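Q: For a teaching handout, I want to show students what a protein-ligand complex looks like in token form. Below are the inputs, and the small molecule is manganese (II) ion. Please produce the holo structure.
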Amino acid sequence: MPLMKSWLDSANNPDCPFPLNNLPYGVFSRPGASPRCGVAIGDMILDVTAMEKAGLIRLADKPVLDRPEWNAVMALGPDAWTRLRKLLFGFLADGSAMRSEAERHMVPMAGVQMHLPFAVAEFTDFYAGKNHAQNVGEMFRGAENALPPNWLHIPIGYNGRASSVIVSGTDFRRPWGQIKGPQDEAPRFAPSQRFDLELELGAIVGQPAPYGQPVSVAEADAMIFGYVLLNDWSARDIQAWEYQPLGPFQSKATATTISPWIITRDALEPFRCAGPERVQPLLDYLQEPGPMFYNIEMEVELTPKGGQPTVITRTNYREMYYSSAQQLAHHSTAGSGMRVGDLLGSGTISGAEKDSRGCLLELTWGGKEPVTLTDGQTRTFIQDHDRITLRGQCRGDGYMLGFGDCAGTVLPALDRPFRR
Ligand code: MN
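A: Here is the structure, written as tokens, with manganese (II) ion included.
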């Protein structure tokens, strides 16, 4: 599909992350004003909360854009999602008769603050990248036991905390936790020294699965409203001591940063691609009815305080072994149901090559092989005041589709973790 032209010049620039083809959904605020729903186009944001109020957008009998989250729109279902996208094309396409109505509700993107685009109902994180699972397994358990025997059959995951999901630009403190190194006789309670990032894609569930009712992979795919970039920050020293037998707990409960714009499944449709060859045949309920992955180029940048940015890895989402639809279908099998606003982390996206690994644990092979930054500094894990930025983009014919930065700075740990 070629670039869809808009009357807004900045949206037609081939390097613009937000052309008419994209139209991602976010929540923004201007200084002193309350947060509202917006759609990114070029270097502007279309204030759809104001447009609904003005009667220009009507998706249901009652307002759904009158709150600082997209959950009510998601709850309307796929027909309404498509209808909204068509309405937006109508306002923003080159030659639109509605141009002046739209122009009146546009805000420059520069200078706004972005907020979480939806209320996160629950958060689940998966472990669905084969290269990542292989590498981490080798480091934690040795080469013979790298890939657990269930890995090629089950999309492995853990139920995380919705309360730790934060939007890009929200800085946070390095966590304290219980740590015991292999040479230590006993554990101690201390700030994490092996604090890491994980490059992931987050899928946003836009339609519920009723309690007690599993969904197929095809149904699961249709339930997904859109995607964000996701950094599943991880304290490796806490993780290594706590993770057996029930998986990560406090090591993953400090922060999960997501990018501020929801890239819709509709926008990503031209970039759909097939997954990898299956090493073992999947059980019927996990088999894919069609291509379920996306060709999304991704990178991670590390910027020390006052220093130069360095891209430390480049990879692609199509490296994953299980798609979000497969994960969602598996997630529903036991009957817990799924909610509008559930967030599913893909798992760390690592390519086969050393410079395409999606976290520092793998990039530095457990801290043994430091990475060198542009200014000559080295890193094994994240240091205080380091800023980590994830980026993602799809390359179309004469345009690109960007996700918007997913960034966060790790601040020093609290001097004392407990107040009394
Ligand atoms: Mn993860």
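A: Two things your students might notice: The mean pLDDT is 97. Residues 9-115 form a domain with the SH3 type barrels. fold (CATH 2.30.30.230).
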